[in-house]
Amino acid sequence: MLTTDQARDRVQDIVQRALAAGADAADAVFAADNALSVSVRMGALEAVDRSESEELGLRVFVGRRSASVATSELASDELDTLVSRALAMAREAPEDRWAGLAPEERLLHGTPPLLDLDDGANVNPQALRDRALEAEDAARAVAGVTNSEGGSAGASRSVMALATSHGFAGAYSVSSHGISASVLAGTGSGMERDHAHHSARHATLLESPATIGRRAGERAVARLNPARVPSGAMPVVFDPRVAGSLLGHFVSAIAGGAITRKSSFLLDAMGRQVFANGIRIVDDPHRPRGLRSRGFDGEGLPVQPLALVEDGVLQSWLLDSAAARQLDLEPTGHAARGIGGGPGVSASNLYMEAGNVPPQTLIADIARGVLVTELIGQGVNGVTGDYSRGAAGFLIEAGEVTRPVSEITIAGNLAAMYRALVPANDLEFRYGVNAPTLRVDGMTVAGD
User: Fold this and answer.
1) What per-residue confidence (pLDDT) applies to 448?
2) Contact at 8 Å (CB) between 265 and 382?
3) What gap in Å lies between CA 233 and CA 448, rounded to an integer?
4) How far apart are CA 47 and CA 49, in angstroms?
């Protein structure tokens, strides 16, 4: 795999080729990835997969017209052909008054922060096989587990580079490690499935395979013999496994594209109370070893920790340069790039700060409610905020988590849900988006 210096040289080279061929401006992104994964099932090796890829994307501007192309053919003559094709496409594209590179005066200059995102991912197949077997063995050892969908372990390393024609060039590398197990409990039509997984930038930060496997087995067994839930309005408590999804819908609603298209239920919410008092939501791209940490955004702008919500009040949209121009605002450093196409936006390490009470206290006064541990489907309307998703989890009765439930639907409106939301104090940083246990009163639960 190329070094970060070599990757940076590669994107700078194609940007210069584009300028020499007649582009008024250009930017390019390069991504290389090496990945190795091992899967087992019922104690036997099932698959060993290795993949390697290198891809390059180029965006060129001719006046206010632009085009993007991508390739995995990186020979010099192929790159010249890529540049010619991009320019020909740009000259035929419609004009876009908002298009263009990020403001030159806002570009990151100097060295990005050192975030310790790469441990080299030097793991051999045997070590991964041992991790996968240990995870599955621990899951199958849980009393009540009757079958297995397998265990897996993987490691990967990626290098990403970005260059623009007006002065930015940067690159960084990241590693990723993961372990998972998925098993079934019960027999016949009463079978239930569940899983557990963990990912980390450094192998030393992974939970033990035995811990992950045991958690998968215990979750599957806990789901046996689900109860029926009478339909009605009741409190819904979101386990941390799924609580972050509510923040995902929030990010979609404050993305610049949704605001410029007027397709967000939070369209007029800037500076207004969106969540309850005391709620704080932070995006932190500088988290050391974070799963979504980065030193610069997809347009070469510096990134900084940013409170998106303070004391329940919305503080900022997520803006790339094009959306910022359209809204007469400044970009926020949230541009995100794939190999093909122009920038969009994304959060980095997003989290809701913990509340003041433990989860047990949060549910202690619930006469009847539901603890949700799994969400199914994508029934969310980003324009109206209407929310309806399939779910599974556990019944809450007289302040105690009691019987499992499945095949239910929970519904509400995100605007109202956010205002009613109460967080517990059990925040952990396990995912790219993290939230503690969350309670939302007044949701509609459909069961029978």
Assistant:
1) 66
2) yes
3) 13
4) 6
The answer to whether residues 389 and 247 touch, using CB atoms and an 8 Å cutoff, is no
Q: CA distances (Å), 117 to each of 176, 229, 260, in order?
A: 9, 45, 34
- Number of neighbouring beta carbons within 10 Å of residue 364: 13
User: How many CA atoms within 13 Å lie on the side-chain side of 55?
Assistant: 14
CA separation for the pair 241, 90 (Å, rounded)? 44
Rounded to a whole number, what is the distance in angstroms from the first to the last CA of the chain? 55
CB atoms within 10 A of CB 252: 19
Distance CA 396, CA 404 (A): 9
Are the beta carbons of 15 and 26 closer than 8 angstroms?
yes
HEC string of the chain equals CCCHHHHHHHHHHHHHHHHHCCCCEEEEEEEEEEEEEEEEECCEEEEEEEEEEEEEEEEEEECCEEEEEEECCCCHHHHHHHHHHHHHHHHHCCCCCCCCCCCHHHCCCCCCCCCCCCCCCCCCHHHHHHHHHHHHHHHHCCCCEEEEEEEEEEEEEEEEEEEECCCCEEEEEEEEEEEEEEEEECCHHHCEEEEEEEEECCHHHCCCHHHHHHHHHHHHHHCCCCECCCCEEEEEEECHHHHHHHHHHHHHHHEHHHHHCCCCCCCCCCCCECCCCCCCEEECCCCCCCCCCCCECCCCCECCCEEEEECCEECCCECCHHHHHHHCCCCCCCEECCCCCCCEECCCCEEECCCCCCHHHHHCCCCEEEEEEEEECCCECCCCCEEEEEEEEEEEECCEEEEEEEEEEEEEEHHHHHHHCEECCCCCCCCCEECCCEEEEEEEEECC
Tens-place pLDDT, residues 14-54: 999 999 999 999 999 999 999 999 999 999 999 999 999 99
The two structure tokens encoding residue 248: 């995902």
> What's the pLDDT score for residue 300?
97
Is-contact 271 313, C-beta < 8 A?
yes
Residue 171 carries which side chain, given as an amino acid letter? A
pLDDT in tens, 291-336: 999 999 999 999 999 999 999 999 999 999 999 999 999 999 999 9
Distance CA 19, CA 82 (A): 13
Q: What is the CA radius of gyration of the chain?
A: 24
What is the DSSP pairing of strand 145-164 with strand 192-200? unpaired
pTM, two decimals, is: 0.95
Beta bridge partner(s), residue 129: none
The pLDDT value recorded for residue 212 is: 98
